[in-house]
Amino acid sequence: MKTIRTVFLKELIDNFRDRRTLVSAMLMGPLFGPILFAFVINLSVEQSLENAEQTLDLPVIGREHAPNLVTYLESQNIDIKDGPESREAAIEAVSLGERDVVVIIPENFGENLSQMIPATVEVITDQANTTAERETRRATRALRGYGQEIAAMRLTVRGVSPMVMRPLNVDEVDVSTPSGRSAILLGMLSYFFLFALLTGGMNLAIDATAGERERGSLEPLLCLPVKRDHLIFGKILAACFFMAISLSLSLICFHFVLRFMPLQELGMTPNFGPLIVLIAWLLLVPFAVVGASLMTLVASFTKSFKEAQTWVSVVLLAPTMPILVVSILQVRPSTELMFIPSLSQHLLLVDLIRNEPVNMLHVVASVGSTLVVGAVLTWICARLYRREGLLG
Amino acid sequence: MIVVEDLHKSFGEVKAVQGVSFKANDGKITGLLGPNGAGKSTTLRVLYTVLKPDSGSASIDGVNVVEDGLAARARIGTLPHGSGLYPHLTARENIAYYAKLYDMDPAIIDERVQTVVDQLDINDFADRRTKGFSQGQRTKVSLARSLVHGPQNIILDEPSNGLDVMATRSLRDLIRQLKKAGICVLFSSHVMQEVAALCDEIVIIAAGQVAIHDTTDGIRNATGCEDLEEAFVKAIHMVEAVE
Hints:
Chain A has 392 residues and is mostly helical. Chain A has 15 helices and 4 strands. A 4-stranded mixed β-sheet of chain A has the order 2-1-3-4, sandwiched between helices. The longest helix of chain A has 38 residues. Chain A is elongated. Chain B has 2 domains: 165 residues, P-loop containing nucleotide triphosphate hydrolases (Rossmann fold, 3-Layer(aba) Sandwich); 67 residues, no CATH class. Chain B has 9 helices and 10 strands.
C-alpha cells in the first residue's frame, strides 16, 4: 500500500508540473466538448428558425410593374423593399455580399403576362453564399406559387379544372420531434464527457511503460525492492485521478455552457443543475478505471512515446462504438446493456438529462460491471508489467 | 558480496551469457570488462533481477536473486545503463522518491538525501528540476539515488559513458570512497584504462564466457603481456579460439 501511495503521489506532482499533461487534462478535454456542442446547437437553432415563418425582407427593382405580384408576396409574409437603382447595381451588391438576394421585375412584365408570353422575373443571388441560400429559396418558392396561381386561374377561365396540372400530390410527413432531436444531441454529450475523461489520463497511461522506458527511468525503477504490481497500480491510480479531474471540469463547463444555449428554441429542456452534475459525475467516474487500464495496456505494447500516442488515440474512439450502434438501432435501455461500459454510462446519462427516472438496478449493474472490467484490465496490465520483455 | 555461478541466459537464438562465474568481495572494486555485446549487461541485469537466468545462480550477500528477488534488490544500489531521471522533479526529489520506494523511515529520509547530496557534491543543482541537466549531472544524481539507502553492494553498468574528464575523475574518487567504506563495488566497462586504474580484480568477459578473472598483475602474468590492453586482446582471442 505504501509503495502504491508513494508512486501515486509522485505521479501527481510530476504531472501537475508537466505542461503537456496539464493542457490535455485541463484544457483540451474539458473544452473541446462544450465548444463543439455550442457550435452544433447554434447550427440546429438556425435551421429550426428557417422552418418558422419569419418575415423576409426582399429588395425588388420595378415593383411598380407588378402590383398584383407584390400583393401576393406580401401575403406570403415577405416584406417588399426598394431595391438598388439598376440591374448592374443589384448584381454588384449581391456579389459583394451587401444584399443576399434581389428580385428584378422588368417593365414589360404586365404586358407579357396579359399576352400569355412567359413573363421573366430575375432573381439575383450568389449560390456560394450559404446564408443567402435560404432567402433565395423562399423568394423563388413564393414566385413559383404566384405563377401556379395564375396558371390555375387561366385554366379555370377556359373551363379546365386546375387539378389536371397536379397529377401527383406529394405529401411529406416529418415525424421528427424536438425530443428526438435532443436525444441525438444528448447522445453527443455523453461521448464528450467520456472523451474528456480519457484525454485527462492519456499522458500518464503512456508514461507508465513507454514513457519511462524511453526516458531510461524504467530500469532503475524496476531495480528497487518493490513489487512491480504496486508500481503499476500506483500509476493507473494516478491516471484515474487525472481523468476524474478532467471529467469534473468538463461537467462544470457544460453546466455553464448549457445555461447560455438557446435550447428552449429547439424544444429541449435539458436538466443540468448542480445536483445532476454531481450524479452524472458519480455515474461516469467508474469508467476512469476502464480507460486508464485500457490505455496503459495499449501503451505497454509500444516502443516509444510517439507510437504509444498514436495507438492510445485509437482508444479515445473506443467508447463511441457502442454509443454509435445504439443510436443507429434506437435501443432502449435494458439491464443487459448496462453490462457494457461506456454504453451503460451513455444510456444512464441520457435518462438523467431527460429528467426521466433512473433505474437503480441499472446504476448498480453499470457501476459494478464497469469496475469489474477495469479490474480485469488492470490485472492484465500488472501481468504485462512483470514480463522480462518490458524493458524492450 | 556478490557471487555468480555458471550463469546462462539466451534470447531466442542468441546465447548472451554461457556459463559466467565470478565472485566480487566486500571492500573490493571488481571490474567486468569486455567488448560490446560480450554479455556484461545481461550478467548485471540478472544480478539486479530484471532478467531471470535460464540456469545457474547468483546471490547477493547470500540471498539468491532468483528465489528472493525483493530481498536481493534491497541489498544493492544500481546504476543501470543509461539511467534516466524524472525531468519535472528536482534532483533532491528524484533521490527522495527512491528513498521512499526503498521503504526508508520517513524521519531520516531528508537527512539521508542530504548526506548523498554532499557525498556526490551536487549541492549546487540539487534543488533544480533535472530537465536539461548535463550527462555528468544526471549520472551523479542517478548515483546519489542508488546510494541513498546505504547499500552494501553497488552495481554500475558502464557508469563513465558520456562523461567528460572531470566527471570521470570525480566518479573514480567516489568509487574509491565506497571501497574504503567496505562496500562491494561491481562495475562494467569496455574501457581498459578505466578498469586498470580502479579495479582490484578484473573479470574479462568475451562471447558470454569468462576469459580471465584475476588481479591486474595476475592478468599480466597469465597472458604474458606487460601492456594491459594487449593482455585484454589476447584474453579475448583465447576465448574466441575455443568457440
